[in-house]
Every structure is written in structure tokens, then in C-alpha cells.
Write a structure and sequence with these properties.
about 180 residues, alpha/beta, Rossmann fold, six-stranded parallel β-sheet, about 15% strand, binds magnesium ion
């Protein structure tokens, strides 16, 4: 259960406080793509997010994309943002997160994972001792397996609230229906 508790829950990537991360000793970010930086399956990234990544880089943060998407899709965003990427990550397996840390040349204590999913991004991060930032998914039109996972995710978040491990306020916007 502990491995499912995010260190921070934010509406979007743009709400990440870089000063706060720096105070925590974090120097690198491993960022998810689908539903974190672009709506699921979308080929275009919002300019505001492109600018945010640029600003974070200019502030000295090292950034790598870690995505379960196919390498082609991952590579196109990596190219756009001029940062490294690990595609077909099979999160929450540790391999891709480790590869990302290798690419940034940073130890676990200095790395944060940013993503929209509890069971892939947060769990994958926490089991390796990384700081985990959960953001709201950019699009809610999800199908099949992801839809089932979202339901399970909401159930788990509610359970964490009942056990006093999470503030209801922090996850209210994710709960929605059911
Ligand atoms: Mg995602």
C-alpha cells in the first residue's frame, strides 16, 4: 500500500514547483508522455507544456521521457523537446526507470517520476525509492484496459483516504464517477 502513495498530487505538470523540488535535492525528472504531457494518443504537445519543459531545463533540471508508448512516438517527443527518452518502458517494471536514471546520470535520491497513473508511474517510482508526482490525466476518454485500471485506481485512492494516508481534497478531482 505504501508504494501507491504519491509524494505529491497536482492538477498538471505545469503546477510542479521547481523550487520545492530543488529544496528536496531533486535534479532530474522522468516524465510520462500519454495523458501527462499530451492527451492519450495525440500527436501534438501543447505549447504551454513545451515551454514548461524548456524552463525546467533552463533552471538546470535534467529531463528524460519514460513512456510505455512505442519507441517511434516516444522519440518524436524527445526530439521536439531535445531530451533523451526510453520508449516501450513496460512500467511499472524497474528496467526503464533505471535506464532513465542512467541517461540522466543521477542516483535515485535525486530523481522524481511524473505521471498520471497510480499503478505504473507511482508504483514504479516508489519501489525504486524515487519521488513520485501524480498528475491528473489530460484526457478522460480512455478505453478497455485503461478504463478498468482507472476504476481500480479510484478505488485504491479512496481506500488510501479512508486509512488516513491521503487527503481527500488532494484527489477529489480524480474521483469523478462511481
Ligand atoms: Mg500516462
Amino acid at each position: 500500500m505504501k508504494l501507491l502513495i504519491p509524494d505529491a498530487i497536482l492538477p498538471s505538470v505545469q503546477d510542479i514547483n521547481l523550487d520545492d523540488l530543488r529544496r528536496r535535492g531533486i535534479a532530474g525528472l522522468l516524465i510520462d508522455i500519454d495523458n501527462t504531457l499530451v492527451p492519450w494518443g495525440n500527436p501534438q504537445m501543447d505549447q504551454a507544456l513545451v515551454q514548461w519543459i524548456k524552463r525546467a531545463k533552463a533552471r538546470g533540471f535534467q529531463i528524460c521521457l519514460v513512456s510505455n508508448a512505442l519507441p517511434d512516438r516516444t522519440a518524436s517527443f524527445a526530439q521536439l523537446l531535445d531530451i533523451p527518452a526510453v520508449g516501450q518502458a513496460m512500467k511499472p517494471l524497474p528496467r526503464a526507470f533505471r535506464r532513465g536514471m542512467e541517461l540522466l546520470n543521477l542516483p535515485p535520491g535525486q530523481v522524481a517520476v511524473v505521471g498520471d497513473q497510480l499503478f505504473t508511474d507511482v508504483f514504479g517510482a516508489k519501489r525504486l525509492g524515487l519521488y513520485a508526482i501524480l498528475v491528473n490525466p489530460l484526457s478522460t476518454g480512455e478505453f478497455g484496459f485503461t478504463k478498468i485500471m482507472r476504476r481500480l485506481e479510484r478505488r485504491t485512492l479512496r481506500r488510501l483516504v479512508r486509512r488516513g494516508l491521503l487527503e481527500l481534497e488532494s484527489i477529489r478531482s480524480r474521483l469523478g464517477r462511481d
